[in-house]
Amino acid sequence: MEPIHPWETPPGRGDHDAISVTSWVSVCPRGLWNVQQKRICDRSQQTVLNSGNACSSGYYPRLGSLCRVRVRLKASMDDTESSASGRENEKLEVDPDLSASDVTESVVTSFLRRQDSVLQIPLGDWTTLKLGEGQCDVTEACLERMRAGEKWEILLSQVENGPDVSVPQPSDGNLPLCATVELQAFTPGKESWEMSPGEKWEWAKSHKERGGVRFRSGDVWGAAHSYSQALKLLITLCGHFTEVEKKGHEHEAGEQSDTNAADETQQLPSADEFKTIKAELHSNLSLCQLKLHQPERAKASATKATQLEPGGAKAWYRLGQACQMVNELEEAKRAFRKLLELQPELPAALKALKDIASREKETNAQLGLRLSKMFS
């Protein structure tokens, strides 16, 4: 999908001088936004942190990195364009004495996510974010592409046919929004493939908890994103649990196992608990997708939940709802009947089956009327 005002890389430049432009779609509390990112202040122009400090200029922030970042909203696109000529000499405010301990000991900025804002971060001030926590999806996605001392410009526009989101706009009220993102320093983090199973499990639990908090606050888009992030990590753990189950009885009694492996196993849940948590995540994601009017996705998520945990009543109810929305009434009836097996006389299931019967009766009546007209 083309952004409203796409940036283009000027032709005829070498790799060193080329303007790097990337684009993606990000989540905010009430919808999806197109994001374009362009570097306007190269790290080679900056005072790069010395060795032994928070990071090396050759690395990017990763999951768990503490990032010192500042986001500022441009007053207008005209101001952005008029300042382009001075960008080459622009200097980022980097403290050469900033050490790893300074960043590590800084408190992660607490900022309540708002329904009326795209950028979920205090604007204009230096802020400490922990990459991976999903405080501001737009900012985190930018940071994953940045190095210490770099400054990037971002252009934000609503996804076509997306929900109507009220956002903090420039003074002239024009869209798209334009902002700058500056990365002063960051601590080392890890890619997901570098993490131990225990670390992945802790991250997955934190995403699940964060998803619940966001859902209860009305941030359905943010909740769906958190549940999806948790599931992505749990998928990488499936092989680990399969291997553990196979090796569960291989060692004879009294045989000493590797201490580190034993400690790691103690941090992880049992295979049954792992399956239950994964089913809950799929079920919760299904509920979010129902509220976001994505019935096909909700059906797929609820189906996975019922396969993992056949006794999960909520998942069967959400599967029935999703099937109703896509007019798969036979599948919906099977789901609600299964729910009644788990919770007999449940009013919600009985009402749903009654509604389906009414819809089928109406459909049959309309079909009979058409057939009678055809042969009359």
UniProtKB/TrEMBL annotation:
Keywords: Phosphoprotein, Repeat, TPR repeat. Residues 256-266 have a biased composition (Polar residues). It comes from the Eukaryota. It comes from Amphiprion ocellaris. The keyword Cytoplasm does not apply. Residues 78-98, 246-266 are annotated as: Disordered. TPR repeats lie at residues 313-346. InterPro entries: FKBP4/5/8-like (IPR050754), TPR-like_helical_dom_sf (IPR011990), TPR_2 (IPR013105), TPR_rpt (IPR019734). PROSITE patterns: TPR (PS50005), TPR_REGION (PS50293). This is Uncharacterized protein.
